[in-house]
Model the fold of this input.
Amino acid sequence: MEKITSGRMLIALILASAVFLGMEKALAQDFSDNSCILCHSKLSGPRGEPVKLLKQSIHQEVGTTCDSCHGGDPKDADLSWRAHKASPEAALKVGFIGKPSEEEIPEFCGKCHVTIKDNYLNSNHGAMGIPNCVTCHTSHSVQRTSLAKIRQEVCAMCHETPRGQVIEALIVEARHRLEQVSDLVEKYRAYLPSGVEDQLNSVQAQDATVGSVFHTFSMDNIKEQTESLKVKADTIAQEVEELKEELRNRKKIGVGILIFTLCAAAALFYYRKLLPIPHD
Ligand code: HEC
Ligand code: HEC
Ligand code: HEC
Ligand code: HEC
Ligand code: HEC
Done:
């Protein structure tokens, strides 16, 4: 018994270390050909920090790394290093952007987040250039966002009135209504015409644009968007209610027909009983 247990433990230990070594190798592979990370992880202060910060960010998770934002070729350390030392113009020629200035940040992030950038640049915030993308999201520890981020602590840096909370409440209310309607459609899916589900999909697609409308930083736009979501959700709810009413009526008619048939059968039965029994 003793022996079996320790034998098993040994195997478990070997397996665990194999998994561990495998993981180490996988991680090493991820970084072994990325000269930006290799070199910067050896640097201290603000030059080394991005490597650690990025590890906990949504960008690293989706494979957006140093060169995705800053440009340069992670496979060619020499070229990157020469680009570091070249003039900004010469560096750009080999695709190295380096550190963006405050004014360049919206375009820098907006390479990938195009609609958000456009909305931001047309906003009050964009016109002033402050707050910019990294004031609110940071540069290297960007996290997945949520409504909870539209809170006073970010906005209160400049606004006394609780704009974040007002916007959050509008969005929460619209989303709550949309969830109720999705549940309703789910429940009656089997009976609903396919048009209703298409309508729901289109409202959900519109809901997915709320995050980018938010970056217009205009109360009017945000109100219009959330109001339109609620109106469309209400229309769908109305259609489902009408269907429920129809199903209820059909049920009543069904029960009516059943009772009538049973009565008719009973009447027929008694009527036959009343007939004189034929003799031959
Ligand atoms: C051989 C080491 C090495 C490699 C490889 C390297 N860097 Fe650097 N990097 C540095 C050092 C050192 C600095 C400090 C500033 C300087 O000397 O140019 C720096 C600075 C920077 C800066 C800040 C520039 C500024 O103006 O403050 C950015 C951004 C940057 N590197 C990104 C990258 C990216 C992206 C890559 C890969 C394509 C990369 N680095 C590859 C060593 C390196
Ligand atoms: C999502 C885009 C993004 C990614 C990915 C990214 N950076 Fe940056 N980085 C920025 C922005 C924006 C700035 C300028 C604002 C600032 O200094 O925070 C910056 C600034 C820097 C600076 C200058 C810091 C200073 O204080 O002077 C260095 C060095 C740097 N990045 C290196 C890296 C390295 C190395 C990686 C990969 C581990 C990386 N960055 C990944 C967006 C990014
Ligand atoms: C004033 C602060 C602020 C500024 C400036 C800002 N954002 Fe945001 N961003 C937020 C908040 C808060 C959310 C969460 C909104 C939500 O969940 O509806 C968000 C959400 C996002 C999202 C997710 C959108 C989605 O559909 O879920 C992305 C991507 C993003 N921001 C990128 C950017 C970029 C790029 C810039 C600059 C052009 C920028 N942000 C400027 C505060 C800001
Ligand atoms: C090379 C393309 C690229 C660049 C440049 C870039 N991002 Fe992203 N970003 C992505 C991708 C891809 C995702 C993940 C999208 C997803 O899964 O929703 C993402 C996700 C995000 C999110 C979270 C979105 C969410 O769903 O909550 C925010 C916030 C964000 N980025 C902000 C920024 C900021 C700020 C900058 C500039 C400092 C920046 N991004 C630069 C590609 C990029
Ligand atoms: C760095 C300062 C700063 C930060 C941080 C900031 N704002 Fe602003 N914001 C301004 C300034 C300045 C204006 C233009 C003047 C005004 O309307 O008060 C403005 C305007 C606005 C407007 C337009 C007002 C309207 O009536 O349409 C909205 C909405 C807004 N901000 C929302 C936010 C939200 C939400 C946050 C937090 C996620 C935030 N702001 C963070 C400085 C800031």
Observations:
- Residues 167 and 222 are 7 Å apart (CA to CA).
- Residues 1-29 have pLDDT under 50 and may be disordered.
